[in-house]
Amino acid sequence: MPQPTKTTMSLAVLSGKGGVGKTNLALNMAFALHRAGAKVLIMDFDVGLANMDVLLGIAPEKNLQDLLQSGVQAKDVVVAIEPGGLDFLPAASGVPELLDMDEDVKDMLFSKLNHVFGEYDFLFLDLGAGINPLVMQVAAMAMTRLLIVTPEPTSLTDGYAVVKVLSSQRGVRDFLVVANQVTTHAEGKATFERLALACKKFLDIDIDFFGSVLSDPAVPRAVRLQVPLLKSAPTSRAAKDILAVAARIVRFSRDNADILRELPILKNNFPQSS
Ligand SMILES: Nc1ncnc2c1ncn2[C@@H]1O[C@H](COP(=O)(O)OP(=O)(O)OP(=O)(O)O)[C@@H](O)[C@H]1O
Ligand SMILES: [Mg+2]
Question: Which ligand does the CA of 18 lie closest to?
């Protein structure tokens, strides 16, 4: 894998349909990039039903909700997962109020988060499924978006809906797509092509294919073990596919380093019409 460069690249991981593999992919891509020498922060931004901590088999003391209190800083909440800069920022589960933060509270939260973001090469924001306004806002704030789909028609139509909402309401036109839980890589490519065709025809948007990940029993096994796939089954088929996606992310960050360097890690002002 090529060596990462020294800019922070933020990636929002999102999907229309739930349960397509966002959290597992975000976690294992973060592991892959860390192995390649990058400093990576995984942020659980599924503020309704946070569960990245469960996949890691840890019970963090503090989470995003604590950051809403004065005096608590982002560094107090960040947990080290692996030595050498693989860190985790947990969210609160079962706290739906976080979805309805008013703008002042959100500004305060993001200004605290910005203090730590710059220390990393990559920032993964694991979002909840669907088109909730906070999810759409955070997805639009990130430099890049990884849209996860599966070959199921429902996942594709919901994925299309995400592209439509983000483009029409927030002016976002760039999407990196990963097809997960595919039977063959040909099926993964065909899944992408179907989505790409609809995005081009109805929204005039060109989406990018970042690879596909085979459906692999090693993934649910890793979930049950609460040990990330790249640790529990590093040679599994899904792990190899995730490494290939991570390598594409590194290449993207190098190829676009000049552009990324000019962008805020999380953009606060973006066009919004609804
Ligand atoms: N490549 C794969 N092969 C087999 N099973 C998979 C694969 N990817 C994900 N899964 C399974 O799909 C389920 C959902 O995964 P995950 O929690 O990562 O999805 P999610 O998109 O984050 O869900 P949510 O929308 O609820 O946040 C898990 O039980 C996981 O084991
Ligand atoms: Mg999830």
Answer: 1
- Residue 65 in any domain: the answer is yes
Q: Which of 20, 63, 38 is nearest to 188 (CA)?
A: 20
Site to probe by mutation for ligand 1, drawn from 20, 52, 185 as the one with most ligand atoms within 8 Å of Cβ, is 20
| Positive/negative CA dihedral, 31, 36, 41, 45 | negative
Q: Identify the burial level of 166 via C-beta atoms within 10 angstroms of its C-beta, where 0-12 means exposed, 13-18 middle and 19 or more buried.
A: buried
Range of the domain at 229: 9-261
Cβ of 96: how many Cβ atoms within 10 Å? Answer: 11
Backbone angles phi, psi at 32, to 5 degrees: -60, -45
Q: What is the pLDDT of residues 211-225, one digit of tens each?
A: 999 999 999 999 999
Model confidence, pTM: 0.94
In this structure, which residue's CA is closest to atom 12 in ligand 1?
Answer: 21
Tally of domains within the chain? 1
Query: CA nearest 221: which of 232, 210, 230?
Result: 232
